[in-house]
Amino acid sequence: MTCQVAGGAPRTSLTVVLLRGEEELSRQPVVGEPAEVTFPVAAGREDHLANFSCRTDLDLRPRGLGLFQNSSAPRQLRTFALPVTAPHLVVPRILEVGTTRSVNCILDGLFPASEAQVHLALGNQTLNSTVESHGDTISATATAVARAEQEGAQEIVCNITLGNDGREAREKLTVYSFWGPTLNLSEPNASEGTAVTVTCAAGARVQVMLEGLPAAAPGHPAQFQLNATEMDDRRSFFCNATLEVDGETLHRNSSVQLRVLYGPKIDQAKCPQRLTWKEKTTHVLQCQARGNPDPQMHCFHEGSHVELPIGVPFFVRLNYTGTYACKASSSRGVHTVTVVMNVQDRNLRAVNIVLGVLAILGVVTTVAALLHVFGVQKRSGTYPVNQGSTWLPLTSRQPEEAVGENPS
Questions:
Q1: What is the residue range of 274's domain?
Q2: Per-residue pLDDT, 403
Q3: Which residues on neighbouring strands pair with residue 20, listed in sequence order?
Q4: Residue 143's domain is classified under what CATH number?
Q5: pTM for this predicted structure
Q6: Using the 8-state DSSP alphabet, how is residue 232 labeled?
Q7: Pick from 186, 131, 188, 183: nearest CA to 160
Q8: Where does a domain end: 217, 241, 261?
Q9: Residue 353 — pLDDT band, cuts 50, 70, 90?
């Protein structure tokens, strides 16, 4: 620090004092006219924002006079410290056109950190940053927006300045565009039997793959054709797009659904043509039809035209017996199946039991009668006499009363 002194005599009694605030740091004699006195000072953090001044002392007290003093205007000193390292810059390696990403720049070891200035830029685009300081650390955060004209290799720069010095960091960034994949159907709502072309396309450097089949080369579309059938209704088609950016592989997918218009068809496996139910029981008629647009399903009795509920429980009555025409109809046509319902009377079982009992009783009665008749015949029939053996000797015996009479 230098103090310039003009005038003052005798010079042998004149000195210059360097002050920091009210604190005396150094004192030197004044030599020459005008005089320039230099004070070397090692600047420290404690000197930041301190007021320094020069004071001249003309001491004439040894000569019986007084001490004459004069002071300069104070000058404020600003000190600072910067590390030798560069800021730590955190940026994305790749950034898609039209998207935004955060950029962070941090530097430790600053003094005073609150007075540092930070400048962030993407190429020639200055980024609006939010700067915060904590102790000896300063951090800046900005939002980078990729523009179409910036596509390709770019550089993000962070510059931190403090006092008359600064530190800088640079990081590479690749700006890219990745549109698609776009998946199209030549007929999103196709009638059954119509030829439908499925096409998938994307950007110039993008490789697309449709339903597992890759395109001929990057930038070319992939497509195939099919004849729409009922089985293709609500079928989803998928396309995958791949882009290589700065050694990183990016993937995107797209899907589209095909609607096939076809006439109503009743699933006969779920709509039995013969039903046998008992009276006064609850049942559900499960008749379903498919089609696009969704068909309306109705079942009417062919004689009385009474409608039978479908898909909901209903109470079966005896008069429900008969033949029903179940029709599925839509704007694409009509499909009909015939359902024959046989409702059995619940009392039929009791009648059958009674008839069975009567039949058994009849059989038992018949068997008993036959046994009785056979027994009677057995008791009143002719029995054969067992003939004696001819070899036994036979003797004749006259009756006692006939003894003594002459044979006539």
A1: 267-344
A2: 36
A3: 23, 52
A4: 2.60.40.10
A5: 0.60
A6: G
A7: 131
A8: 261
A9: low
